[in-house]
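Record type: monomer structure entry
Structure origin: computed from sequence
Chain ID: A
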Amino acid sequence: MSEKLEVGSKAPAFSLVSQDEMVTSLSDFKGRKLLIYFYPKANTPGCTTQSCAVSDSLVELKAAGVDAVGISPDKPAAQKKFDEKYGLGFPLLSDENHALAETFGVWGEKSMYGKKYMGIVRSAFLIDEKGVLEGVWYKVSPKDTVPNVKGMLT
């Protein structure tokens, strides 16, 4: 796995294409907190659980000054289908070449049925208004993403 980021580090800048074919950048969220979570694949059980939990908490998060984006290696069209199927309502960004995932330290070796492969290690980050990492959760459970962020806001 790539080098992990730590609380207090500057968040890596990014510009990725969303499910709506719009370029979304870290700088778009300047002055607000941002929850970024990396998930392996749209429309899979864990990713659906995680994304729907973020969606269900959007009003509360926005009231606390937190925006959210999900990032996976899926193409924008797959992200669009995922968004439409569940009515997620926030940017899902495409990191097809996993360059940003590597920068955030979430691209690593995984194993399924004894077979090893490289992929996204489900992780979440809370970035403060100045672009500094306030919360870092590697290998986060899909159901723990939102509670972890909410815990940082109280």
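Annotation 1: The two ends are 32 Å apart (CA to CA).
Annotation 2: The first strand starts at residue 15 and ends at 18.
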